[in-house]
Amino acid sequence: MLRGALATGLTTCVLLGLGAGRAAADAACRLPPNLPVSLVILQSSAKVQQLAASVRDARVVRRDADTVVFDDGRVITADVSAAGDHLNALGWGDRRIDVAVSVPRRRALPRGSYG
Fold it and tell me: How many domains is the chain partitioned into structurally?
């Protein structure tokens, strides 16, 4: 049943996205209420765009320089506030959010420099 509801919702998003304006497509792109949003937070807009370009199995429903939101609930962002604005605009602001954060790799301290 969940798959059917998800497929129907995503088909509606795709059809509206092809034939109507962005606002109509955004309004219709609603995940089933029991599915969470997955939020990936990266350190730069360039990394957001690079990761978003690698996604082939979902359609972009919202995008700006720092954030990309896909119709399956995945969100890639370098600006958590902007991501929240996009989620609220899509009506997804009250969903559970699963968060993943990418942090820069720390460089090892040189030997003998410990305090």
Answer: 1
